Amino acid sequence: MASPFSYFRKYQYLMLVGFGVMLMFAFVVLPPLQQWLQSMQQSVHDPVVVKWDYGRLRQSDIQRMQYEHNVLHNFLNAVRQKTVEKQGAPTRPKVEALERGGEQRVLANLLLAKKASLQGIRVNDAAITHYLDEFSDGVLTKSEYRELFEKSQLSQGALYKQLRTELLAQNMRRLLMSALPKPTPADVWKAHDRLARHVELEVLAIPVEEFVSSVKDEPSTAELKELFEAGKTRAPLEMSPEPGFYILPKAKFQYLKGDFAKYLAEAKESVTEEEIKARYESGIKLREFRKEPGADNPPADNTPSDNPPADNTPADNKPADNKPADNKPADNKPADNPPADNTPADNTPADNTPADNTP
């Protein structure tokens, strides 16, 4: 009797080829096909709701962003409560406090954060850590922060990523608002009137002057008093038929004006020469009146110490250069050819030349 495996041995090559084709289909063709089918199903149950230059957002993406935003809000509330428990004072950071928001808020934060990144604004992990330290008044330790991160529904990295988006959006929002002029209450009211108030009127003009002459009787004092009592708490309005006598609050200002020249003249009269001299002497000791070297026409240039009389004496024009000492008889005196030991060289006229006795 033939073995039952003989059939497999006979067609083993064909079977191997068939299994190989099936494996190739399972590992190469089937995964993309499954992804395509899932995308088709997702497009029906999870449609694309936002398209922008940097991608697409489905309904599930927006729900995830909203969930992460609210988890971050709960985390900051936990940080605030922990700070109060440790006798700390949660300070308001430079950025606004995060609030719970819906789809519009998370989408606006995404757009503003992307715009801030394009403008060069950066928020790194060190800035986020500084934000948390400032928010918690610096009383929480790393272990306490680690405990709060573990209790939250997101990891520390996910919370930092969400907080980075929030800070970028708030910084960009603050830059945009700073560039706009702040409207006054009157501007806001006028804008409200233009947008929200719509009135249709049929008006008949009645000139009052035509009816003044028909009034014959003057009102009595009691009638005037009664009219005043009825309208004393009512503000006067041009379009109101009822008279109003209430005076709106007014501002009262006081100011003080001083004449500086007058007070200066009085102060000069009260200062004595002794006080001026004492102030000047103390200023000299403190070197307050000393001019820096190089000033124009400093007093030091005209002092006798810099130009001593010796420079202006006739010695500059003295006949020392033409004095007879250069041509004195000592050169032609008999001392050159005399008996060396008996010459009167010590008493020559050269010692008594006019150069020594110049004026």
Sheet/helix structural class: mainly alpha
Mean pLDDT level: 76
Quaternary structure state of the chains depicted: single chain
Report how far the terminal alpha carbons are from each other. 164 Å
Could you give the order of the helices and strands? HHEEHHHHHHHHHHH
**Number of strand segments:** 2
Rg from alpha-carbon coordinates: 53 Å
Strand content: under 5%
What is the strand arrangement across the widest sheet?
1-2
Poorly predicted tracts of residues: 94-98, 299-359
Shape type: flat
What is the helix tally?
13
Q: Portion of residues in helices?
A: 40-55%
Query: Can you summarize the main beta sheet?
Result: 2 strands, antiparallel
Fold and architecture overview:
The chain is mainly α. It has 13 helices and 2 strands. The chain has helices at 6-10, 12-45, 59-85, 103-118, 125-135, 142-151, 156-178, 185-196, 209-212, 221-231, 260-270, 273-285, 309-312; strands at residues 48-52, 55-58. A two-stranded antiparallel ribbon has the order 1-2. The relative contact order is 0.04.
Entry summary:
With 359 residues, the chain is mostly helical. It contains 13 helices and two strands. Strand 1 and strand 2 form a beta hairpin.
Secondary structure topology:
Elements: H1 6-10, H2 12-45, E1 48-52, E2 55-58, H3 59-85, H4 103-118, H5 125-135, H6 142-151, H7 156-178, H8 185-196, H9 209-212, H10 221-231, H11 260-270, H12 273-285, H13 309-312
Antiparallel strand pairs: 1-2
Helix pairs in contact: 3-7, 4-7
